[in-house]
Write a structure and sequence with these properties.
This protein is an all-alpha fold. It has six helices and no strands. It folds into three domains: 49 residues, no CATH class; 34 residues; 66 residues, Helix Hairpins. InterPro entries: DjlA_DnaK_co-chaperone, DnaJ_domain, J_dom_sf.
Length: 159
């Protein structure tokens, strides 16, 4: 294993040699440098055309497109008036949530939680498992109750 000091000296020596040879008038040195540069370009082109390089470029393109889509969605949400992810929540929607939970609009979260638990216990689908029609209706009611509770929880900031 080569020490870092030796590697740094070798790199510095190579750079000084390249720098000095850049100003030479010797045709052999110039031809060797031209051939080295040509070989380096060919090698870079071969590496650039490997399967791994192509896959890497495709992956970067996909990642770039995903990031652009994310930024567009974020900008659109911000333009709609919020970054909370609850775009389109109007005061009327919030009032509907309170009505669904059978509490006055603006009620304390403790009151909302208590009403939610009471209503879920009352309309839980498992209570109506013997009747398919009632079970389906109870499932829908429970879903709406839960949606209202989650909406208020997010709106109030308790979640």
């Amino acid at each position: 294993m080569v020490g870092i000091g030796k590697r740094l000296i070798d790199v510095a020596r190579a750079n000084v040699t390249d720098f000095a040879s850049a100003f030479t008038t010797d045709p052999e040195v110039r031809e060797r440098r031209r051939l080295d540069d040509e070989l380096e370009r060919e090698l870079a082109q071969e590496v650039d055309n490997t399967i791994g390089a192509r896959a890497g470029r495709r992956a970067r393109n996909v990642a770039d497109k995903a990031e652009e889509a994310w930024e567009r969605a974020f900008d659109e949400a911000r333009a709609r008036g919020g970054t909370s992810g609850r775009a389109g929540v109007t005061p009327r929607t919030i009032e509907g949530w309170y009505r669904t939970l059978e509490v006055p609009p603006g009620s304390d979260f403790t009151v909302v939680r208590k009403s939610y638990r009471k209503l879920v216990a009352k309309y839980h689908p498992d209570r109506f498992a013997s009747d398919p029609d009632k079970y389906a209706a109870a499932t829908e009611v429970a879903r709406k109750i839960t949606e209202a509770y989650e909406g208020i929880k997010t709106h109030i900031g308790e979640g």
